[in-house]
Design brief:
- By secondary structure, the protein is mainly alpha-helical.
- The protein contains 19 helices and six strands.
- The strands form three sheets. Strands 1-5 form a two-stranded antiparallel sheet.
- A hairpin with a 5-residue loop joins β3 and β4.
Length: 436
Amino acid sequence: MNIPDDEPTNANPHALETIVRAGEKRSIVASEDIFDERGTKLLARGQPISAALQQRLLERKLKAPLEANLEVADGITAKELKASLEAFVETDHPVALVLRPWAKELATEAASIKVHSVVRLLLTSAQSVRPAVYDHAVRGMGLAGAMWLKGGGDRAQLQTVLLGGLLHDIGEMYVNPSYLDAKAPLDTAGYRNVAVHPRLGIMVLGRMADYPDALTSAVAHHHERLDGTGYPGRLAATAVSPLGRLLAVVEVTLGIASTSKTPWAHTSFALRMVPGEFEGIGVGFVTAAARNAAEDLAVHGQAAPGKLGLVDGQLATALAITAQTQKSASTPAVRAVAERARQLLFRLRAGWNEMGLWANDADSAISPETAFEMRMAERELAYRMRFIHRECLWTEKDLGDAESQELAPLWSSLEGPGASASAGAGATPAAAPNAA
């Protein structure tokens, strides 16, 4: 995504806040004189970024992107990324354990990846101020690379794959951290802010760096789903790039691994929950890891008897209300939202039918594996139904009061028995840490 370098731009307040705070610990200075759009010099070359300058930078349109004119002398290098990856692989984190067969090759390749000056600035700022963001990037780099190698991917593309894992969430640097770190599910406004981070990522990489199109496309697609139920573009099938498909699995895996007691089995279930959402070498990697991890599935307990039946009834009710809303819609906007909800609910119904778990709902003599899948199904279905509300509305302009009232019965039906804020493969990082 290329934007003319001479187009005036505003500094992003969230990225700037992180950079300024990082500047208190690291040497971040102007690499060139920084001017506003009228030619007024705001910061001279070689001068440090500071809190005193922060408000002026926010108030003025700048002649060039701020990040492109800042440099960090003691910033992240490829050598440091290699060291960070090696240190992670030596931990007992469940993802680290699975990466070990490829650790040497991944570290060798990481040591020579291209760290553009803007990427160095943002990664260094994240490491200094929000270390969990930096850790997520390093883990994404290692996991994407391991998936690629195990799947027989072309070694010539490995550096692009590593960069994809490293930078897939770079756009989150431009999102309000209060949304990203939220403990409760996001409302539509909050979700709207988070859901654009893939586009923000490609604006950074496309405007201020010179990485290949395969990388920027993958960053843009890492929350897309092959059945068209992802974001931000609602792309489907071949419109989602091969590396974007891989990064979608990386994102789900890292999110679930951050909290789940059985990360590999949990991720494997989430990827299979709705047929057609995910495919490719990433899915094969997770399936093999789940098979080899021998996790204790009993730690999740069993679904309460009849709970799946309640969720099934809730799903059927929501589908019926959606059909009625479509039929009686007073405006095209209401009809479009109801149609989107119908598509998402229909996909859930397809996954529900294919799993066939409802047949075990009242059976006490089931295997630990089946009990685990029933519990995961209960959590996933309940979460995904709540998620539909935000997913249907975030791209819409604000609806009128009458239109909102018309859709209210549908939203109420999605919050029915069994609903919870539990995370799943469709979750956003802020709404549900399990699927960040």
